[in-house]
Design goal:
alpha+beta
Length: 73
């Protein structure tokens, strides 16, 4: 039986996969995986997705933009 927490974590993973069109592993030992969503102008401009895991499940994600490898605020 799924609890509301398990259901929320499953929905979070499904949201990321649907919106960003990437595949996230069902279980991983990593604490964070970084996906490059786009790269323009020979790598000068990048958009990265940071997916955080806890006990192998997705718990959080953030998108950051970089210019010349400097994170934009």
């Amino acid at each position: 039986m799924l609890t509301s927490k398990d259901n929320f974590l499953h929905l979070l993973k499904a949201e990321i996969e649907e919106f960003y069109k990437i595949s996230i592993p069902d279980y991983t030992e990593e604490k964070q995986i970084v996906y490059i969503l786009s790269r323009h102008l020979l790598g000068i401009y990048e958009k990265k997705l940071y997916v955080n895991f806890l006990c192998g499940k997705v718990v959080d994600y953030k998108v950051f933009y970089y210019i010349f490898n400097k994170k934009l605020i």
